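Morning, I've got a small favour to ask if you have a moment. I owe you a coffee for this, so here goes:

…
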Amino acid sequence: MLNFLPAPLIGVLASLLLAINCLFWVPILLLFAILRLLIPLPLIRKALGPVTLFIAEAWISCNSGWMALTQRCQWDVQGIDGLDYRKWYLVNSNHQSWVDILVLQHIFNRRIPLLKFFIKQELIWVPVMGLAWWALDFPFMRRHSEEFLKKHPEMRGKDQETTRKACEKFAQMPTSVMNFLEGTRFTPGKQQRQQSPYRHLLKPKAGGFATALNAMGDKFNAIVDVTIVYPQGAPSFWHFMCGKMPRVVVRARQLPVPHDLANGDYAGDPAVRQGYSDWMRELWQYKDRQIGELQQQAGTPRR
């Protein structure tokens, strides 16, 4: 354990280990991804899919290794027993920091299929990582403002089409589709601008979630609802790398897939949209209470 070192030095070492891990695994991942792209035989492509996933899981395991080496963090995790690596899951979580992704990957690696995130289109240009996300078939989404969509109405619905096509690929082998319903990281400023009715959450957005359910509702075995709480406050990525995340609390639960909503027409049926709104409001009210209770138990000042 290297956590006895000064925090800035821990941050430098952790960053170096993260970079080495990426530079080792990503070229191997790209090699198999390019082979899968170039070889036209469906049987070969299907066989190479699990290879790329194995590489990604090994990469995540190495991330967990350097985290254990450099971090002194107490992991309080409940609710992940009973999950099955051979099943399909739609995973939802609250979102506060980039660290959420490392937390989710760490606790779910090899317990459920690899988490597939919906990535903002511009992140494909992130050095090394953009190529890795492409190689793993992470769908890249173009987020447009309402003002842009009014000027370019032909772009409306493009993200939903991207989601649908991605889910068609995900249906071919067990997959965990990851969705942050808030659509962005929580901050008090965003909460105020949204006039969110929740103390600890932004308003949930149903579009991508509904599209994934509609495309794969018959495949998903369960919805895994995850709540992440940082008792000392959500860390920035650099604070995390410096070992300044002493504790993280994670609670997960499996929920049944609402097939009545999954089989409905979210885009064209107001009753279905209202059904999603009601379902998410109940989910978010529970999560908001849960976050408050977990913070209270940890002695965290309430917002």
About this structure: The chain has eleven helices and eight strands. The beta strands are 74-78, 89-93, 115-117, 119-120, 140-141, 176-179, 222-229, 247-255.
